[in-house]
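Input chain follows. Return structure tokens only.
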Amino acid sequence: MHDSMLKSSSLRGTLSGALLWVACASATPAERPQPYSTPEGPKTRDAEPPGPELQSVAVGRSHSCALSRGQVFCWGLGTDGQLGPPQTSSYTPRKVEGLPAAAISVAASHNESCALLENGSVHCWGPRPYSDDTAPTEYSLLAGSKRMTLGHWPCVVNRNGHVVCAPHGPNEDAWTLEQSGMVRELFGGGNTLCWISSSQRLTCGSLALGDFFKEEVEGTFISASPSGLQGNSAGVGWSHQCAVASDRTLRCWGSNHEGQLGIEGEHRETPKQVEVGGVLSVTSGRSTTCALLSDRTVRCWGANDRGQALVRASAEPERPAEPPGVGRVTEVRTQGRHTCARRSASEVVCWGANEHGQLGGPPSASACTQACAPTVVKLP
């Protein structure tokens, strides 16, 4: 689809219809276990001095990434190149080679990873049609970017404050989406995209049946965290969305089959307030939601079949609960069936599914769903 087609597309339809389509389109077969690389030499990581300053974390379906002083490190499933070359998996963080400048943000999705560099360019790595090259590739049509997000494809806010997406690869046509006002923040997940304008209005949309349906969400929403903390103010899940309102309350809508909206019921077409306050940021995954509160503690709810919410098995899935052992953090991200948080200047903690080493420890087919401790990940 070209830009002209998007601009002439009908915007009729409801967000809920698009959300249901996203839920179906996002389901994919589970990956088969693959061989893993292991660290060479003696295991002395715990005795090493503190690592470099952590800037952010990102979580894909079965892999994780972290940004540290302009360098990107990834771990977990890597057979599609989502860790960068070589095309192998690793349960220890591996530096992504081939980025031509320092990165300022990192994002991960199903089986792809992207970085926004300080020069405004966007580079992604992962599966490439008709190519075995998994090295970071520049999306030249997204040059001059200020913000970046990654769902099924990378989208950015360009220097003019417009949303641009590149769904067909690094060298194909890019889409410029029509929106009112300058865009300040951008959030993606699956085929759904949300953005917050300079007037603090939130708009979400999904690609369905060849058209881009979008709908403005009632209310005013924040687009930056206070006290210099990094974090999203909207979370885009596979079939549900959440956003932090201007009064630091949380509103969620969409599918609720596993309690991911934090309320009772099966589905909500309009935002519904969750019983948790003082919210700085929110992250939404497959069917799990986590919020970072003003005291820097975390609350999670929804699906916990692989321990991704890290709450008691007896807990009501829709009731926000603090994951034990996580402590105070500055950022939290959830995706497929695992969750990671940035806990200190050199430490990431992860919990949930670990069949591909995405928690930063030796792979395990079993998952701990109660009385669990998160895995501590230290970067090189």
